[in-house]
Amino acid sequence: MTKPIVRFAPSPTGLIHIGNARTALLNALFARREGGSFILRFDDTDLERSRQEYIDAITVDLGWLGIEPARVEYQSKRFGIYDEVAERLRKAGLLYACYETAEELEMRRRRQLARGLPPVYDRAALKLADEDRKDLEAQGRRPHWRFKLDHRVVTWNDLIRGECKVDCASLSDPVLIREDGTYLYTLPSVTDDADMGVTHIIRGEDHVTNTAVQVQIFEALGADVPVFGHHNLLTTARGEGLSKRLGHLSLSSLREDGMEPMAVASLAVLVGSAEAVRAIPTLDELAALIDFSHISRAPAKFDEHELEHLNARLVHEMPYAVAEARLKALSIEGGEDFWLAVRTNLVRLPQAREWWDVVNGPITPVIENPDFIAKAAAVLPEAPWDTTIWKQWTEAVKAETGAKGKDLFMPLRLAVTGVGHGPELAALLPLIGRDKTLQRLSGKKA
User: Fold this and answer.
1) Signal sequence: where (predicted)?
2) Residue 279, SS3?
3) What is the residue-averaged pLDDT of the chain?
4) Which of 59, 62, 163, 237 is the most exposed place for a label (fewest CB within 10 A)?
5) Is residue 446 a contact partner of residue 436, using CB atoms and an 8 Å limit?
6) At what angle do helices 406-417 and 370-378 cross, to 10 degrees?
């Protein structure tokens, strides 16, 4: 197979969400596995709504996921190219001017439905004489421009959905240019895909209906038609559609919530496929699992509880070398011994700070039985301490008090850490140290 060239083309009008990340990851990982290249192309033709802050945020989000584009393009810098393509299509008789208002088109649509006809544009504008056009423009009307479809069946072999076909006679000629001269999505997208040599277009299934039109435009431009793949869409756990406008599951919010990028990537890629959802530690391993033919046709639910499970698994298995810099950024100086002691009690890495505060103090000891704790303090082993101290101490306390099981362990944990759960005290005690432990057993903050 020729090395693929793929693209991800977000509109910088809001923060991207996990559904957008699914598309970006499927493209980037496919290119990664096949030795191809990934283009990040900002669909910023809407100059009023596009914002630099969103361009920056999208760049950060993709970088957080480990996606590094081979090139970055901006459609707002390519208007001259689109103008040239539009002129080519006009001269070929494939782009024609229409003067109907939105109200007139809606009225015409209702009449067609009432007569039992499909609400397809009737190409009335093609019947206008030059005089008619001049009269309409003299009235202040400005044309929008439609692409003249060839009324034939367009077929393509979709990477995910298999053989697809659309009878273009059932479609209205699509508007490519608005009355104010601005471009809709289709013409810039096809122009750029052709100009940039995009070989595979992998996108959400909400674009399936656009494909037949785009195939015809590729052909009209004399360009190679890319391979298409339309994946299922992600929803929230409750089945709601994701929205940039509503901020559903934005990548920035997941990152700020302490989620691991590979947990997010693993769930975004594997959910809704035949592959078992599990935590994959690297992008290369995740790329090897992509099989477009195994992606379901049904929408897939992105469950935040499942994400937490995957996140915890990655944190529990994370080597200290991977966690070290992030722990230091949280002002945690406990080193590898601390990390190995606490990591299996974390769902998110930043939660390690809570246990560093327990180790470092001060904490308020919880002492429910002062006599028991006083006896425990009396038999506290001398320094130096290592991971055998907890066993030595509890055996001595048991011999002194006769307590065992929960009645032995829980009062000691509450007094030393202030909480009734957490990492093994065999690992924590050497980090807390004898002096601090003794202070806490006396009921003092330490």
Assistant:
1) none
2) coil
3) 96
4) 163
5) yes
6) 80
Quick one: pLDDT at residue 238?
85
The model scores a pTM over 0.70: yes
User: What kind and span of H or E run contains 230?
Assistant: strand 227-231
Mind listing the pLDDT tens digit for each residue in 33-72?
A: 999 999 999 999 999 999 999 999 999 999 999 999 999 9
435 pLDDT exceeds 70? yes
Give CATH superfamily name and number for 80-177.
Glutamyl-tRNA Synthetase; Domain 3 (3.90.800.10)
* Mode of pairing for the β-strands spanning 153-158 and 200-204: unpaired
Domain regions of the chain by residue span: 1-75+184-317, 80-177, 320-360, 370-441
d(CA 437, CA 416): 6
Q: Edge-to-edge strand order for the sheet containing 71-74?
A: 5-8, 37-42, 71-74
CA dist 276 and 262 (Å) reads 15
- Least Cα distance to 260 among 281, 277, 275, 242 occurs for 281
CATH, domain range 1-75+184-317: 3.40.50.620
3 is in an annotated binding site: no
